[in-house]
Amino acid sequence: MQVIYIAGPYNTYPKGYDRHHGIQRNIVEASQIAAECWKKGWAVICPHTNTGGFHNLGLDEEIFVRGCIEMVRRCDAILMMDGWTRSAGAMKEHDEASLRGKKIFYYNRHGIPDPEEQ
Fold first, then answer.
1. pLDDT at 112 > cutoff 80
2. What proportion of the chain, given as a percentage, has pLDDT over 90?
3. Spatial separation of the C-alpha atoms in residues 68 and 107, rounded to whole Å
4. What is the 8-class DSSP label of residue 112?
5. Residue 55's pLDDT is what?
6. What does the pLDDT read at residue 19?
7. How many DSSP H helices and E strands does the chain contain?
8. Is the dihedral of CA 32, 38, 42, 47 positive or negative?
9. Which of the residue ranges 35-39, 58-62, 106-110 would you say has the lowest mean pLDDT?
10. Which of 3, 22, 34, 100 sits in a 20 to 30 Å window from 74, CA-based?
């Protein structure tokens, strides 16, 4: 089974949202995309749901960045959510995936790719 990593904004969100609701919006959106990927046959790494709410624990954000980069290294592909370019973390994840020769998909253009066709 192929593993796909969901990358997108967590701490950055569209105008009109306060921080709490903006982050919750991003978590819900990532979760919905992750569910679609599972339905397509991918094993999914979704950091939004893995660490959702951890921003309130007072941990250094760098620990999450390093951990997410490590997860990108271990996956087969990465799926970039809409708005990923607003996120410094997602841009680092994209760069790491590109550097490692991972398959990169863009949700807004491609929807969910079929893992068997990759």
1. yes
2. 60
3. 19
4. S
5. 65
6. 83
7. 5, 4
8. positive
9. 58-62
10. 22
Q: Which has the closest alpha carbon to 42: 81, 78, 95?
A: 78
By residue count, the chain amounts to: 118
69 DSSP 8-state letter: H
DSSP state string for the chain: --EEEEE--SS---TT--HHHHHHHHHHHHHHHHHHHHHHT-EEE-HHHHSTTGGGTT--HHHHHHHHHHHHHHSSEEEEPTTGGG-HHHHHHHHHHHHTT-EEEEHHHH-SPPGGG-
| Number of C-beta neighbours around residue 20 at 10 A | 11
User: Cα Rg for the chain, rounded, in angstroms?
Assistant: 13
Mean pLDDT within 48-76: 82
**Token pair 């807004």: residue:** 108
Give residue 89's Cα distance to chain centre. 9
102 phi and psi angles, rounded to 5 deg: -75, 155
Q: Where is pLDDT greater, at 34 or 17?
A: 34
Say which amino acid occupies 60.
Answer: D
Instruction: Specify the pTM.
Output: 0.89
